[in-house]
Structure formats: structure tokens, C-alpha cells
Amino acid sequence: MNDSDGQPPMVRMFPDYADTVLWFGEPVPYDESGLTEGLVRELEDWEQSYYDSLTPDEDWKSAELARQFTAEGNRLAQRVADELGDGYEVQFSSYEPGVPPHRFRGARSGLNPRAAAAFGELEAALIAEQQRSDNAAIAPDADNSEWFAVAPLTGAIFKPHR
Fold it and tell me: Which SS3 state, helix, strand or coil, does residue 27 take?
């Protein structure tokens, strides 16, 4: 999850009908995040306010609601970053038109060692999965020692034609 330029792993934060606004390679369920209950409750409320601020066509009901969503998202992203500490960066992507993503970093070891440890475990699992995927994509087929590739999203196996 580390970028090649030495940046810390990035936690992305945005609502997307996944029952969480936290993304770390994939959606992160709140009960696996290690974040404090109060912050989780605020994230859930903020996500619901987003859905409540949209028309049936998924447009903002008003520009003011979009601004409120962005302001609260920035505040919550900093809170997540503060709990995680400087070992992670949090990127908040607002859906307000014209607002670019913002990145947030916490200070030092963070306010919540449990959350930092939980994301450390998630990072280790993602790295291990990527290594398994990389190895599977170049491993010989055990049955007849032919090469094959595995599509990471579908798991489909492709073998070269002879």
C-alpha cells in the first residue's frame, strides 16, 4: 500500500453505498477499523446526510448541502487521520462540484493505537494478497508445467494457446 515515492499508505474516504466511507484497497467495515465508537457514529451520520442531500437523480438538493458535506468531510477526514497517526494519509474526495480531493495526516503515533494496528493488519493482508496474485500470475501450472495467468478481479485463469 505504500507508494513508490515513499508516501504512507492512503486511506480513502468517500460514501459509495458500501456501508462504510473508509476504503483501503477495498471497503473497510467500521468494526474492522479500530476507530473509536464516537468517530464511527459521526462517519455513519455524515454518510447518511450525504444520501439525504441528494435528489432521486443523485444531484445535490442545494449548493449549501454540498458545501456542508464537504466541510464535514474535511473535519472527519482530519479526525480519522488524527486517530491513525502519521503512518497513514487520509484522502477525502468530495462529490461537491469543483472540489478536488484533500489529503490529511495525523501527528506522530496517533490518538488511537487500536486503529493504527487495525489498519496495519489490513495493510499486511493487502500486501500478502497482492503477492499471492503476483505469484499466481507467473506460476507454472502444476499439472503440466505450462504457464498461466489469473485475472485478479474475476479469478479467471488464462492459459496460452499452443
Answer: strand
- CA distances (Å), origin 84, targets 81, 87, 126, 155: 5, 7, 18, 33
Q: Where are the alpha helices (DSSP H) in the chain?
A: 30-33, 37-52, 63-84, 113-138
Backbone angles phi, psi at 160, to 5 degrees: -70, 145
Residue 1: pLDDT band with limits 50, 70, 90: low
The Cα–Cα gap between 152 and 98 comes to 33
Amino acid identity, position 91: Q
Q: Say if residues 146 and 140 touch (Cβ distance below 8 Å).
A: yes
pLDDT tens digits for range 16-52? 999 999 999 899 999 999 999 999 999 999 999 999 9
CA distance 45 to 55: 18
Query: Can you tell me the distance from the alpha carbon of 79 to that of 73, in angstroms, rounded to the nearest whole number?
Result: 10
pTM for this prediction? 0.79
Q: Which amino acid is at 137?
A: A
Of 121, 154, 138, the closest CA to residue 25 belongs to: 121
Structural domain spans, the chain: 10-158
For 54-76, write each residue's pLDDT tens digit. 999 999 999 999 999 999 999 99
